[in-house]
Structures are given as structure tokens and as C-alpha cells.
Amino acid sequence: MAGAGSTAAKGAPVPAAELPVARVLVDTPLAHLDRPFDYLVPEAMAEDAVPGCRVRIRFAGKLVDGFVLERAASTEHEGRLTPLERVVSPEPVLTPQIAALCRAVADRYAGTMADVLRLAIPPRHAKAEAERAAPGPTPPARRAESRSAAAAAVERGVPGGSVAGSQGQAETEATPEGSAEEAESRSVAGPGGVAGSGEAGEPGGVVAGSGGGVGEQDDGSRAAGVTDGLPGLWAEYPAGPAFISALAEGKAPRAIWNALPGIREHGAPTWPEGIALAVLAAVRGGRGALVVVPDGKDVTLVDAALRRVLGEGTHVALTAGLGPAERYRRWLKVLRGEVRVVVGTRAATFAPVHDLGLAVIWDDGDDLHAERLAPYPHTREVLALRAHQTGAAMLVAGHARTAEATRLVATGWAHPIGPARETVRAFAPRVRPAGDDVELARDPAARAARLPSIAWAALRHGLEHGPVLIQVPRRGYLPALACQVCRTPARCTQSPPLAGPPAPVPGAPGRRRRTEAAARSSATGSSAADPAVRPPMAGPGDRPSVAGRAARTAPVGRAESAGPEARRYEADADALGRIGGPARPGAPYGGAAYHGGGGLSEASRGGVFPGARSPGVAGEEGGRSPSSGRWTTPTLSMEPPMPPVEPPALPVGPAALSMEPLMPPVEPSARPGGSAASPVESARGGEGSGDDGRGGGSHEGLWAQAPLCGGPLALRSGHAAPYCRWCGRIAGMWRCQACGSNRMRAVVIGARRTAEELGRAFPSVPVRTSGRDSVLATVGSSRALVVATPGAEPVPDGGYAAAVLLDGWAMLGRPDLRAAEETLRRWMNAAAMLRPGAELIVLADSSLPVVQALLRWDPVTHAERELAERAALGFPPAVRMATLTGPPAAVREMATGLGLPKGAQILGPVPVEGPRGRPPQTPAEVEERLMVRVPRGAEAALAKALKGAAGVRAARKAPDLVRVCMDPMDLV
Known about the structure:
The protein is of the alpha/beta class. The chain is built from 28 helices and 31 strands.
């Protein structure tokens, strides 16, 4: 063996007698080092350094982690091999199947295998690893006997002819990346069959009945109360029995399943039971199963269904909320073969299930299936690669259907499983769009109302039979505001604090000393010249001192000696101090007379009133109006909290918010020359002019160094002042820069404001909210108003009696390629929780294709149309696209050295917006994105070219990072 002679030098480690070379994958993110390296295995580590174990090695002069991929007898390296430093653990955590999958994922997404291994293998927990392992899996011989018995039971119990499937040979399988011509050349299932590479199903082989099933199994692997006959509820689908029978025979069918909506008598959704029955069929066929769902709420549902169907101790659930020890303990059970059924979230995609026979993904359109870490793989694509490598079956399930799943059906790689139209009509809710011709003739205001009369009627009728659901697209209270007069979006007109001392302004003697003194006094929170100056980061609950309140009553152009930097923070001190006079009775408020007693204007001046409560929210005292007949109009008003008086008629649509001036109006005589202050100057605190060091040039110079924030304004509650969503500062002195008005109106209404308004409208009904801050898992069967954001809808006991989908324009109007597809998916997921035949009101134009798909409960036609439109425009999944994101110079440099395949197109580069549309604040934050589009079939060459270019940059030690992402979900 070259590099490891039989005679070792003095002091050198003695190599192992057998297989003295270990090929190690080094844990490094550098693309040009993404390959195994040979190391010498000392004799003392020969027993522990098994393939798949964790080791510590010396690489480039540093101790780093690594995984042993294999042991070899020789090496191609001509020099002396570096020995392994130590074996961290002899546990073979990296199986050959998972290593091959990680290599394929890295090549598919132009990433490194080390990055994929960080996603696949959880961190080691020594105590959990040292625990005594349970008995191993069933021996192969006994497993084969069980599989033969299950196949014989299928022949006895399932009527009909042969069933299409595959025997599991990976070399004969079709990959999702295969072309349509290749797919058509393969043998697929016959009419009513399920896709596979085995024999084609005969016509009439699928029986849509419930009498067929798989025969008996061991008592220890079947839960009590579960019938022996399969497919159970799969009999409601024409191709369902064939799919279950193929799984029970050990074959590998591939299907796209559109699950039926509705919650049945047992009070839980039906799709977890369908997945559990498919898993049971795979287990009876002698193989393991892996189920991946978007979030922990879905894991709980599937986990409960698996306990009912499989029994206790036959599966594990892997979620991030378990903690490192318990999660690693459960992962080791799967690795050691103690259990062969796994359900979990995105991280469970790489679970080392022994003899994998079924891979299931639920709701593949959910963005939670897209990994946020490099190389950004998608769960659907990883499971498809794994099913191809291991010869396993695959089930892509959901209420809606994505364009990617539709393409798998179009190429023949998978076949659809869907219910008949008669069955859909029996279980689907009764969908009614607001704003159709009949409804407009009956209620002319329904076109502009946020909650028209048809929605109010559905809520009232549904509350008589149980809980009702209100889905709101936006969280928060009022996440977007605009000017009441000109409708210009309200944005922050304050300047963020400058980092470090302000730069001196040339041209004025003594100005630098006053500027430095002002900076020191602002940092310490005190000033001898002006005690009213406050630190710029004062909290919303702080109140000004008596001296501060008296000082703020002085004219805007008063002389002071604290320097320009102190006056620079005057606007912030005024806003955070909540100055201003009392409310004027009878002042206009949103088109109605405001008679005092609270509201936004008072809250913006004095914060939350003593003993004040947010009205309309369950659990808060004194929150609802005692007048039951107060809400006579079918609209949600923006009325402020006030004493119980009969309100006037409010305008239709998002009503107006009034914000009284926080400072006395500046008279023209208060300014030099008798000129009035401009809106921009008023927002900046009313700085004056002059050359005496107190304004004019020095002040404008400081503002030029610190540009305005420009972030969108929002409201956290009805008793709070507007704040900036970017810098977090209170915008108490806001004025519209277009027209100078200081009155605001709501553009978008959030979930908390909706819950507050509904609480007033239904004072005797509890209001439950579910969103990002607090997600409810379940709700009872009693009457309640459940306000939830998309994806956070709690599962009701027995189903919702009615539902209203608000603000459809907010989801459909997003500048996103998947806006229509995502909207339909969210609507169908919410509608599937209703009782069969319950009323569902959707507030969107009924002529839109997405609304028509919801009306007919036909996601397949909508997905096929979406795929055809993307193919015509050259968008994924019809083509493959990659994005390069990073600093402009780095992106252009990497694009110059790309060896792109034939037919590739380069789009861009274009600037990239920050989070929430925030523009870059510093030159280092400026990024650009470049897109590369190639036809299908050239994605492997594109990934290779991108990875090669990244390796060149890594070898040159380029300082700027360029992120490479293949087929991102947020493409447009």
C-alpha cells in the first residue's frame, strides 16, 4: 500500500492489519474540498473506526469533524497518510443508503455533501447514545416469510385482477427528472391502476369497494379496534384499493393523492387515517415507512392515527420540539432498526429507516417543506430521489395539488388518486363567493364591504351549531396604514440614530465642540442646557418629566445651547414623550364625530389608559359593548373605544383612523420670515434655519448623513400610537409628505383587530385567536369564533359549522409566481376542516379561476392550467432555474466564469429587497440576484457548472459569499 508501509518509523502510529485506509468526508463548507480524503487507521482504532462513524481528524492544521465513508486496503496517495486523531463514537450513524442520498442531493442542488449531512444527521448526545439498545429488527428470513404470507392474504382478500407496481429495482425506476418521452416508453398501470415499473394492471383490476383487504398479521403489530380488511377509507377512491394492495404485496407504486375534505363523526380529519392505513399496508408487506408533514400540529394528528392503526411502540415521531436528547434517542431507535415507521417534519426526510418501502409527503406546497439552509433542498425532491434509489413507493398527498405534482402525473412517473365527483359533492362544504350578481342585487354595499351581509348571516347561523372559522391573511392589528386624505402609504419620517459620534460640519466656528457635547449628553441621557432632551431609544411606556413637558411648550424655533445633535433627537423625544393638548370634543373621526373618551388620538398622546382594556377579545374584562343592537351595518368599522353611544353610519370598506396633532400647530409668525413649516420639517421636529449653529446648515448636514427610515407604519392595538415596522420607533409626529395631513386610515386589517371587532359584534360568544405568536392545536365543539391566520387553523372537534375566508385580494395580489396556487392551497386546507355541507363564504371575485376551483372543489384542473401557463412562459417546473444572490461584484464575477450548458438563459442581475421590502441601509447590505434558466434535462449540467464556479471562488478565498439555490420557491 502506497503511503502506509508495513514498517512504521519510530514513534509513528502502527496501521491496522486489515483495511488500514479510511476514506473520510471532512466537515467543511468549501466547495472545492467536497470529496473524501484518505487517512491512516491506527491499530488502536481498527475496531471502532467502522464505516459511518464520527471521527476527529487533522485537516489543514486544524482539528475538524468527519465521517468515515469506507475502509480500504490501499490508497492512491503517494505520500505518508495522516492518521486519525480519534474516533468520537463507534456508532455507525451514516448508513450507506443515507450517504448515497446525501451525495445525490448535494449534486442535485449544487451544494456540498457536508452541508447536506448537517441536515441529515442530528448532533450527537453521548448519554442517549450510551443507553442500552432494544432488540434488533426481525431477521430477514422471518421477514420474507411474513411478506409471503401477506401476499397470499392479499390474493384471498382483495377482489379484482392484478395490480400494477414495481419490485423495487432501482435500476429500472424512472426519476422525477426524466423526460416525458422516457416516461411514455416505460410500462405503466392500465386503466384505474397505479404507476409502477411492474406489470400493467388489467382493465377492471381496481374495485371501488370496501370488501377487499390484506389478510391477518401478527397480533403485536395491529392495534385493537382496527379491522383486518383494507383499504378502509381508501375504498372511497377508485384507484385506492389498487394502491393499498400494491403496497401490501411489497411493490413500489407512486401516486398523487387528492384527499377528500370534511371531518367525519369521530371528530378528526380523515387524511391522517388514510396515511396510517397506507403505512400499515407497507408494514404488512415487510417494509418500513417514512411520513413527512409540514409542522408539529400535523405530526400530532398522524402520530395519533398511527397509534390507533399500528399500536403503541411501532413508530416514532421526530420533531424539533423534543429536545436534543429525546430526539437523538428516537433517531437512534430508527438507526438500530428498533422501529421502521417514522413521522416527522422536514428534518425527518433523511431518517435512516431500514428497508424503506413507502415515502409519504403531506401538503407538498407548504413552504415549510423548503429547507432554509444550504443547499436549500425541498422535501418532495429529496423523497423522490430516495424512492428512486431504494425502490420504495411514494405518495404525494394533499387537499390541493401543486404544479410540480401535476408534472409528475403528466410525465407518467406517478398516477393520480382522486375521488369521484359524487363523493366530492357528498363531503365538500357549500362554497358561496361574496360579490356575485345575485348578492350584489340584494346588497349593493357587498362589493366594497370587508364583511358583507352574507358573511354575517353565515356566522350567525353557524354559531347556532358549533364553532365557526374566520381566516385572516395578515397577522397583527393594523399592519398597514395610509393617509386619510390622499391614500399615500404612511411611512416613517424619522432618522435612525447614527453609529458613533456625529461628523463635524465645516463652516461654522465652535460647532464641532457643541456637536461633541451634545453626543455625550445624549449618550448619558442628561443635558445641562436642556433637561427635556431624552435618549433616542426611550421605551413607549416612559413619560416625560415636568421640566420636559414645560420645555416642549416653547416655540419650535427657540434658541438653545445643547447643539444640533440634541435637536436632532428632539422629534424622537417628543414622540416618545407623548406630548400634546387634550382632545377636542366633536373633532372629526373617520367620517363621524368624535366625542372624546379614548381612541387612537388619546392613546398616541398618553399611552394605555389606566384600567383600559382591548374591547372584543375573549378573556378581557369590560371589552365588549353592552349594547346588543350596536352593529347594524354589515361592515367592520375602525371605530375607537368610546362610551356606549349610538354611533353614526360608518363608511363602507376599511374605515378611517384619525390621529390628532401631537403638537400645537406652528403659526407662520413663529418661524423666521413668517413662513409656515413644511410637512417634512414638521415631521423632523420643526428645525429652524439660520447660521448660528442652532439650525440651518449644521442641522441639514446631520440629516444628510442620516437618511430617513422610510419604513411602513402600523398599529399594535387600539390604545397604541403608530410605530415603524423597520426601526420600531413611535411615529407620534407623523404627517403625510404628500399633502401634509396627519390623519390615517387602515389599508390592511390584521387578525387581532378582526377578533376585536367580532367580539363587539357577538358579545356573548368567546373569541379564540390562533397565529404565529400563539398557535392553537384544537378547539372544542362548543360555539366560538375562531380567528386564525392561514396555516394556524386549529382542528375542531367535529368540524367547523361555518367559515369565512376574508381579504382574498391580499393573498391573490401578492407579487409571487405561486400566488394563485398558494391561495387555493390555503383556502382548501381551511375548508377541509368544515363539516360536510357546511357553509363557506369566500370574499373574492367569483370570476377568478382560483375561486372557481374552490367552488367546484377541483384542484386538479387548476393545477393543470397553472402548469400549462408556466410552460408557456418558461417558469418552473416546466424548466429548471437557479439563482445567484450576493454582493453585485461577486455575482457578476461568478457569472462570468460559468460554463453554462447549451440553451441556458441568463436573467438579470436585479437588486434584491431586504426583509419586508426594506431597502439596504449600508453598502454592505446591497445585494443582487441573477437567474439562470435551462430546459429540463440540463439541470445536472447546470448544477455541476454552478458548483464548479463556487469551488473556484472558495479556492481563491473570495471574501463575499454568493448563495446558489436551485428552483427556489420564492422565484418571483
